[in-house]
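FORM 7B: Structural annotation worksheet

SECTION A. Query
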Amino acid sequence: MTNFALLQTNIAFDDPKANYENVRKLFASAMAKTPRPDVVVLPEDWSAGFSDKMFHEMEKHRETPDGPTLKVCKDLAKEYHVWVVAGSISTLHADGKMRNTVFLIDRDGNVVGDYSKMHLYSDMDEDAQLTHGDKHEVYDTEFGRVGMMVCYDIRFCELSRIYALKKADVLVVVSNFPNPRVNHWRTLLMARAIENQMFVVACNRVGPSPMGTYCGHSIIIDPWGEVIAEGGDEQEIVTGSIDFGKTKEVRDLIHMFRDRQPQLYGTTLTDPQI
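SECTION B. Predicted structure
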């Protein structure tokens, strides 16, 4: 079994120091639980939150990959000897472009993978200065093959299907998903689990921001779409254990991937008429 802890934080807007302290306290509480977590997951933009105005001032909020937010996560991973999915950070990459990037950190505090948000929320100007991510790697870990998404990505079934075709065992989602769309959050995540026959582990935030409030309900879902663990709408630590043997069990029972007919789908996905 692999034990997950999702830190459903109440993010203090534009106050990284307060958020670092909050996460350190939550982290210590999570690691004192039984069973002890193997993987700790943080929400999207957990160090500062965001707003539509912020998306036009990203030069004030961006960090480099060796910046303070990622350092906090690397130090915690090393201190507690635990895997960390480090939420997401507005990151200035080596090509000079800023992306909303989530990092995968191993037990020794090493970054072993990353994913940058592919689908930016244009209705809120997220694409004003941030650049779309363009890779969808699946990472081998001691507990299984991991794909990652950020928030709005869950509305795009194509990305999760790519991860499934690359034989991901678990999809880890980090998010700032708002009220009043908690039904969308739960339904989309369950659909991604069922249609791809894989686990979904999704960490959301709670609390207010200039954009409104956030719905929480961080959740762990198995490949049948059954809920293993789910939070409420307050700050808390959501824990649950995963038996990755369930993925093979479900895929061996319903041979959905064998029955796909991609040769019949045509070019609609790449040349939509919408």
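SECTION C. Observations
Residues 2-264 form a domain with the Nitrilase/N-carbamoyl-D-aminoacid amidohydrolase fold (CATH 3.60.110.10). Residues 16-31 form the longest helix (16 residues).

SECTION D. Sign-off
Analyst initials: ____
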